Amino acid sequence: MPSATPSTSSARPRILSGMQPTSDSLHLGNYLGALVNWVELQNEFDAYYFVADLHALTVPTDPAVLRRRTRITAAQFIAGGVDPEQSAVFTQSHLHEHAALGWVMSCLTAFGEASRMTQFKDKTAKGQNANVGLFTYPMLMAADILMYDAAYVPVGEDQRQHLEITRDLAIRFNQRFGETLVVPEPYILKQGAKIMDLTDPTAKMSGSTSPEKGLILLSDEPNRIVKKIKSAVTDTDSEVRYDPESKPGVSNLLVIHSVLSGTAIADLEKSFEGQGYGALKSEVAEVVVTAVQPFQKRMAELLDDPAELDRILAAGAERAHEIASRTVGRVYDALGLLPATARFGR
Ligand code: ATP
Ligand code: LTN
């Protein structure tokens, strides 16, 4: 029998976040902007991190590619420091509850409200041939979040609007059907730097829109990383100074160095005084290569043993299912959907 109240009983507040398996590797922006924060937060919170494979179906994907990318994304969470003993690491599609609650959220959303979501507007404006799944993407995301009674959802600024609609839907549900869902607080990651495209440092490094040379993939070979950083766009000046407005390229390199090496930007500016961009680039390349090498080793180990990775994902799904099944039970009951007990003898 589902419990009547949200399950916020665990000692530490719960957090949840996810990433879509839409490329063959996460990039440095995903890592420094999101993943490193996930790793830090797992010590403080009861953390749930998942691969949003159902969301990835909103763009056409080859089945073999989706399978590969889902395993790679999960392996990269772990290689980046998410500890599956501590945090639940799982795949969204392993829990049928996500699609079920997503449907409920869609039925709670007004057509006009969904039409105003900027991600949908941007992607369709860019000529992407949209399916209905892309339109209801935010409702599935709301379901992901509300499913786990998450207190906080650590995501980048680009996801803010999705969190707002999630809050609106939770409040609306509770008003119509009684206190059932926990209204999450946004936890927009600020300290996690926004990493820019190496070829156009005024645009964010993006898995879907940056050119190959503008992106540092966590799976890139060291010499490829060095090459990309050496050809990063800077400016015609030669002073190493943090000034994102007039020196976006140099500032981006300083941010990457600073976040990975733990050195304050002011100290980096001092140490590069009188030196040109060549010296800065060489050192940034070294710092990035040093950081990705252990990551790549761990990733290769995980991908070499898909059975073990699948076991980790199964254990994570089992943990997630305990909460998810209770939430859907509570929601269905509040909506007036009959319990399935009589039919299945549960
Ligand atoms: P897109 O192709 O839509 O640009 P992406 O691969 O760049 O996607 P997402 O999959 O949308 O990134 O995001 C995964 C996480 O990484 C999100 O929390 C997002 O805020 C963060 N993120 C993505 N790009 C960057 C970046 N350049 N700097 C910092 N954080 C980023
Ligand atoms: N839309 C997110 C991925 C995502 C997510 C979520 C993040 C799907 N469901 C729930 C946090 C919570 C993205 O593209 N980064």
Task: Please tell me about this protein's structure.
The chain is mainly α and 346 residues long. The chain has 15 helices and 5 strands. The protein has helices spanning 28-41, 53-56, 63-79, 96-108, 111-115, 118-125, 132-135, 137-147, 160-177, 222-230, 248-261, 265-271, 277-304, 306-335, 341-344; strands at residues 14-19, 46-51, 88-91, 152-155, 185-188. It is globular and about 75 Å long. 40% of the residues are buried. The structure holds adenosine-5'-triphosphate (ATP) and L-tryptophanamide.
How many β-strand stretches? 5
Low-confidence stretches: 1-5
What would the principal axes of the Cα set say about the shape? globular
Regarding quaternary structure, what we see is single chain
C-alpha end-to-end distance: 9 Å
- Overall structural class, as computed from helix and strand content, comes to mainly alpha
How many separate helices?
A: 15
Summed over residues and divided by their number, the pLDDT gives a mean of: 92
Q: What can be said about the biggest beta sheet? A: 3 strands, parallel
Using the CA coordinates, give the radius of gyration.
22 Å
- Which sequence of strands runs across the widest sheet? 1-2-3
Bound molecules: adenosine-5'-triphosphate, L-tryptophanamide
